[in-house]
C-alpha cells in the first residue's frame, strides 16, 4: 500500500464534526463591527422567517431573538458559529411570540441566560401552553420542533431599562411600552446607534397591535424616533434604508386607523360595518397584510369604543 491513499483519507479522519463543516444556513449581515443581523428576509415580510441578530464581544455573544423552532434556533447558532467561537452569554427576547422564541431552548442549552420581559401574555397563549405548542406544530411541522422546551422565561427580567456591559460594549435593553405585546423589549446599542426593534416595526409598517394597543404603539414609535437610530432591524422583513421613514409609515398607518375607528364609534357604526371597507382577511394566513389590517382594525375599534365610554384603561 502506498502512502497516497492513506493521506487522502486524512482530511476525513481529522475533519471536525459534520455540524461545523456545513456552510452557515443563514446570512449574518454586519451592521457595525461585531454587530450582526440575521435577516429572515424571504421576500415574505411578516409571513416570512423572523429576523434575529447577535452582538459579539470579547467576553461572549449576546443573541437577539431565537427564531421559530429548535431547528431554526440550531441554524441561527450555526450562523453565529461561522462568525465567532465566543461563548453564548445572553439571549434577549424582544417579545414572547413563538416565531421569535421557540428556538430559545437551543441557546439555553448552549449556555445562554435569557433576558426577557416578565409579562409573557399573548392571545396565542390564552388556551394554555399545550394548545400553543400544538398550534405551532401545525405551523412549522413536527420535525422542526424536535427537542422543544419552553425557554422564554427570564433569568434576567426587564420591565423598564437594563444595561448589559460585556467586553467593553454597552447594550441597553428597554421596554418602550406595550405596543405589539405586553412584553415588548428593544435592544439598543448607543455607540453604534443600532436598534433591534422586534415587531414594533415590520417591513410594511403594518405592525400588529392585537396583543398591544394603538396608543402604546404610537408612544413606542416616539421612543424609537427619540433614539435617532442609524440602523434599525425590524422584527420581520428588510432593514429600512431610512429608519425614520419606517417609523413614520407605521405611525401614519396606526394614526389613520385610530381616526377611522374613532369616527365609526362616534357615528354609531357597528364594528362589522366599520370593517367592511377593508379587504377580507386571508383564510389560513393570520399575518398576511389583509389579515393584519383586519385584525388590527377590530382591536382598535374596541379600543376606541372603550375610550368613548370612558373605559380607556380596561381594553381586554
Ligand atoms: Zn410578534
Model description:
The structure is a single chain. The protein has 316 residues and is an alpha/beta fold. The protein is built from ten helices and twelve strands. The strands form two sheets. Strands 1-2-3-4-5-6-7 form a seven-stranded mixed beta sheet. A five-stranded mixed beta sheet has the order 8-9-10-11-12, covered by helices on one side. A hairpin with a 2-residue loop joins strand 1 and strand 2 (35-38). Helix 7 runs antiparallel to helix 8 (243-266). Mean pLDDT is 91; it is low at 1-21. It binds zinc ion.
List keywords for this structure.
single chain; 316 residues; alpha/beta; 10 helices; 12 strands; disordered N terminus; binds zinc ion
Short recap of the structure:
This protein is of the alpha/beta class and 316 residues long.
Amino acid at each position: 500500500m502506498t502512502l497516497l491513499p492513506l493521506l487522502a483519507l486524512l482530511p476525513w479522519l481529522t475533519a471536525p464534526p459534520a455540524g461545523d463543516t456545513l456552510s452557515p444556513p443563514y446570512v449574518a449581515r454586519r451592521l457595525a463591527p461585531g454587530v450582526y443581523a440575521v435577516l429572515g428576509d424571504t421576500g415574505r415580510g411578516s409571513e416570512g422567517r423572523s429576523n434575529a441578530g447577535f452582538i459579539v464581544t470579547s467576553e461572549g455573544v449576546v443573541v437577539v431573538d431565537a427564531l421559530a423552532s429548535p431547528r431554526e434556533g440550531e441554524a441561527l447558532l450555526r450562523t453565529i458559529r461561522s462568525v465567532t467561537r465566543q461563548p453564548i452569554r445572553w439571549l434577549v427576547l424582544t417579545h414572547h411570540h413563538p416565531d421569535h422564541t421557540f428556538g430559545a431552548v437551543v441557546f439555553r442549552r448552549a449556555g445562554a441566560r435569557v433576558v426577557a420581559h416578565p409579562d409573557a401574555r399573548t392571545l396565542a397563549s390564552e388556551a394554555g401552553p399545550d394548545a400553543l405548542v400544538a398550534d405551532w406544530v401545525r405551523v412549522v411541522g413536527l420535525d422542526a420542533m424536535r427537542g422543544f422546551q419552553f425557554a422564554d422565561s427570564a433569568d434576567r427580567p426587564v420591565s423598564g431599562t437594563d444595561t448589559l456591559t460585556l467586553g467593553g460594549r454597552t447594550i441597553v435593553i428597554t421596554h418602550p411600552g406595550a405596543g405589539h405585546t405586553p412584553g415588548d423589549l428593544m435592544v439598543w446599542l448607543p455607540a453604534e446607534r443600532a436598534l433591534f426593534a422586534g415587531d414594533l416595526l415590520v417591513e410594511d409598517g403594518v405592525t400588529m397591535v392585537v396583543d398591544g394597543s394603538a396608543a402604546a404603539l404610537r408612544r413606542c414609535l416616539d421612543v424609537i424616533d427619540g433614539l435617532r437610530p442609524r440602523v434599525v432591524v425590524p422584527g420581520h422583513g428588510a432593514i429600512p434604508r431610512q429608519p425614520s421613514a419606517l417609523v413614520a409609515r407605521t405611525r401614519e398607518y396606526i394614526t389613520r386607523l385610530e381616526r377611522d375607528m374613532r369616527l365609526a364609534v362616534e357615528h354609531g357604526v357597528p364594528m362589522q360595518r366599520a370593517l367592511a371597507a377593508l379587504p377580507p382577511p386571508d383564510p389560513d394566513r393570520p399575518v398576511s397584510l389583509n389579515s393584519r389590517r383586519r385584525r388590527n382594525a377590530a382591536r382598535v375599534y374596541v379600543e376606541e369604543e372603550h375610550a368613548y365610554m370612558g373605559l380607556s384603561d380596561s381594553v381586554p
